[in-house]
Hints:
The structure is a homodimer.
Chain A: H1 3-8, E1 14-19, H2 28-42, E2 49-52, H3 76-83, E3 91-96, H4 102-111, E4 117-122, H5 135-145, E5 151-155, H6 157-163, H7 166-175, E6 178-185, H8 189-206, E7 213-217, H9 223-231, H10 238-246, H11 250-272, E8 276-281, H12 287-303
Parallel strand pairs in A: 1-2, 1-8, 2-3, 3-4, 4-5, 5-6, 6-7, 7-8
GO molecular function (chains A, B): methylenetetrahydrofolate reductase [NAD(P)H] activity
Pfam families (chains A, B): MTHFR
Pathway (chains A, B): One-carbon metabolism; tetrahydrofolate interconversion
Amino acid sequence: MDLVRRIDRAAGEFLLFALTPPRLATARERVQEIADATMARLRPLDLDGLILYDIDDEAARNPAQRPFPFSPTLDPANYLADNFTSWQTPVIVYRAVGKYAPSELRTWLAAQDPARVMTVLVGASSSKIDTMTSLADAQALRRDVNPGLPLGGVAIPERHSRRDDEHLRLLAKQDAGCRFFVTQVVYDVNAAKNLVSDYHYECVARGRTPVPVVFTFSVCGSLKTLDFLQWLGVDVPRWMENDLKHAADTLEASYQLALAAATELMAYCRGLGVPFGINVESVSIRREEIEASVRLAEQLRTEIKG
Amino acid sequence: MDLVRRIDRAAGEFLLFALTPPRLATARERVQEIADATMARLRPLDLDGLILYDIDDEAARNPAQRPFPFSPTLDPANYLADNFTSWQTPVIVYRAVGKYAPSELRTWLAAQDPARVMTVLVGASSSKIDTMTSLADAQALRRDVNPGLPLGGVAIPERHSRRDDEHLRLLAKQDAGCRFFVTQVVYDVNAAKNLVSDYHYECVARGRTPVPVVFTFSVCGSLKTLDFLQWLGVDVPRWMENDLKHAADTLEASYQLALAAATELMAYCRGLGVPFGINVESVSIRREEIEASVRLAEQLRTEIKG
Lengths: 306, 306
């Protein structure tokens, strides 16, 4: 079943792969080369869909210094339109809505083909940021100009660990039109299980149907990447952090940890009956990390029933 | 290999079963009947050892009302001496040291046969309690009067979740003579992994050999037992609490959760190379809960390599 129909029917299981567009400063011909190489690498994976992230500085999120300097990237909407024309599956385009004027978002939303594009609208990472469009306004724009465009939202298990109300936020986002959710990178499986569990039982209590929750996994090839994930707000359980810090091969250790975590979550969701997807994210631009991400998606493809 | 030699060599893997002695008010003949029935039930399990708990009121631990009223139980030292004479394996007798005068502890410690008895000395559950003997004094008494008597200590993953220093407490207890540790009931596997991981890497950093960590599991046949566990300070992850509350059969659900948790921890400890034991505790006096505990021990026996 095609991803659009799965989302429409709130049905799992499916596999996505998430990319960050190249840096804004990349030469135009080089951008297409990167896109072509990426598509060639991903085609054998039999993905159900692709995610293109919309990167924001997020400096306001965390007063600590960003482990990697922020480098603006191409607009994922343009990257898709200009460089991924030959890609076959639906593509989920993220929109960090605060970066765009309402008119700009409206034009983009209106122009998208619901059979090929979905969008995840993301609010600001901190209330301290000046935003051009709020999440609620962006959600309303989609309803106005292209209600058939499948909408997703972000789900943050870490926020559930702190406030115990992320499942209620998910249901509120569902009321605002969200038909699926995507987590940030999951290292803390327990936090993800807590969120899914509360979401499931709240759906049961309200007589609502749960929509697919897409869990994101990635490999981590260096301790600096680990620092960066933590800076971004990803909770890494102490034992995983220890294992990664002491591993002879950090990349391989993180691959095994991600595989085990994904497998555990998949079994848990199946047991509960919550539809789910798996998203493998390529965090780094280092060749061996990209290859390990592809290997992770390849392995998870064999475990996904769908 | 016999449990005494395993502990002496800091070697896993082994299986224990933990009992609470009958209530103090039990008629004398009835006590022996209970002990005989218990031994008959446990003999087929091929246990490496038995644990006898020393129950304390612990009212000072938690201002909330105790879900079950406190009912004093027989002294485990007496229960062992009077009623378990025909039991074959070594027995680990807990001593809630604050309940006893130093002279009383000294006499008991001096009289124990290190080939048959071990002890776990437990300090007060709250600093607000008046104690007759402190943990440090009790440890010193053992060193003085029976240094060959194998000593264990308690390990509390939940405390590690709050303070991040339980691994240092374990090493300090090791310095005070502890040759093994026993956790309270584990529901939060992640917390237990965090503690074992920090303990392992701290041992490596200091060139110390880890001693066996014994993880305790139990079944939970009712939501009142679950309340009681939480009152006692056991962290139950939200998803487990949800699953237990919504299970058609709480006891069977808790059996499956305990089995999965134990299996996960065993695999994790093997990967790290930390020696471990498994302890199955029978919390309740309800027949079906006791039988499920025995079934859990039976199943875990097949998974323990030792």
